[in-house]
Amino acid sequence: QVELVESGGGLVQAGGSLRLSCKANGRSVSVMGWFRQAPGKEREPVASITWSGASSYYADSVKGRFTISRAYLINTAYLQMDSLRPEDAAVYYCAADSKTDWADFLDPKSYDYWGRGTQVTVSS
Question: Is the pLDDT of residue 1 over 90?
Answer without folding.
Answer: no
